[in-house]
Amino acid sequence: MKARQIDLSDACGVDDAMRRIAIVRFAEVLTLVPALRRGRSRDLHDLRIACKRLRYALESFTPREPALLEAASRLSQLQDALGDLHDRDLLLLAMSKKLHVSAQRIRMQRDDALARARALWRDAFAPYGPFEGLMRFTGLGYGFGDGVAGS
Amino acid sequence: MVIDEMPDDRIAEWALGLVKADVHAFKRARTRFLRQPSAKRLHDLRTSARRLRALHDDLREAIPPFSLKRLRQLIDLTGEARDAAVMREALRDAIDVRERHAARGLLRTLRRRERIALKRIARTLEHVRLSPP
Fold first, then answer.
1. Per-residue pLDDT of chain B in tens (133 residues, 90 and over written 9)
2. Which residues from A are below 8 Å from B87, CB to CB?
3. Chain B: nearest CA to A12, how far in angstroms?
4. pTM for the whole thing?
5. Which has fewest Cβ within 10 Å: A53, A105, B96, B123?
6. Distance from CA of residue A90 to its chain's centroid?
7. Which residues in A have their CB inside 8 Å of a CB on B?
8. Is the CB of residue B68 less than 8 Å away from at least one CB of chain A?
């Protein structure tokens, strides 16, 4: 999924510019997060890329806005889980039918990675949880913790 | 009335500072990788290139334009090398003893894919010219 362009033409100062960028990138993640419930490879890949974009942006902002550090760290964990899942998906595509026992093991690892990603997402929205600072900074994400990721 | 559509100077200065820092990090990762390639150095190179591209996407309106064509090419190539290496490792870890023989072909293909990508990365790196805007 292509990154949305961000309008900074009438931003008032650096803090406002940072907020605008964080809002757009967080909104991209929130739009794609139903992928965690559906479990489809392509959608999960898009979500991983969106998490990465948001994380990189937040990491650039933390010297001025340390409250975003925890969200960046959680996004990194989420990205790792989604990355493990994506690697297994690619491997399963490349494997022949002769490798069905090994493929079964890899499918189990994929399911574990998806469960890990869902748990990381749900927990991020807990009161005083990793996304608290990001939600306050952007005004987005309230009500997203429950039910979205499913199980 | 003239409407100024450029971001204010403070934003431009801040954005340029971030881009310069990321260009510097990329150049450092490139030097280290070319000096002695390794999985860790490939990861650092890939991460620094992706970080720079993401920053460019975020701040496009606030910084002078610069070309990312070669950088994008490099990101694709480092992805190919990294994917092949990670898939090989995951396959080796998960392989059932009864299927070891059947997996040899795929393991070889992945190794070959990784080698080819690594060679192309070294060639592409020679052509990436990033001067801070």
1. 444 555 688 999 999 999 999 999 999 999 999 999 898 999 999 999 999 999 999 999 888 887 788 889 999 999 999 999 999 999 999 999 999 999 999 999 999 999 999 999 999 988 887 765 5
2. 87, 90-91, 94
3. 7
4. 0.91
5. B123
6. 19
7. 3, 5-14, 17, 21, 25, 52-53, 56-57, 60, 87-88, 90-91, 94-96, 98-99, 101-102, 105-106, 109
8. no
Using a 10 angstrom Cβ sphere, with 0-12 exposed, 13-18 middle and 19 or more buried, the burial of residue B47 is: middle
Could you tell me the residue ranges of all domains in chain A? 13-138
- Contact (CB, 8 A) for A118 and A149: yes
Q: Which residues contact B59 (CB under 8 A, 6 or more apart)?
A: A8, A21, B15, B18, B19
Q: How many CB atoms lie within 10 A of CB A146?
A: 8
For tokens 């990194």, the residue is A76
The string of pLDDT tens digits covering residues A6-51 is: 999 889 999 999 999 999 999 999 999 999 999 999 999 999 999 9
Q: How far is B10 from chain A (nearest CA, A)?
A: 6
Question: Is residue A96 scored above 90 in pLDDT?
Answer: yes
**How far is it, in rounded angstroms, from Cα B77 to Cα B121?**
6
Q: Provide the terminal-to-terminal Cα distance of chain B, rounded to the nearest Å.
A: 30
Q: Residue A55: what residue type?
A: R
Place of tokens 């204010």: B8
CA dihedral A130, A136, A141, A142 (to 10 degrees): 100
Predicted-complex ipTM score: 0.87
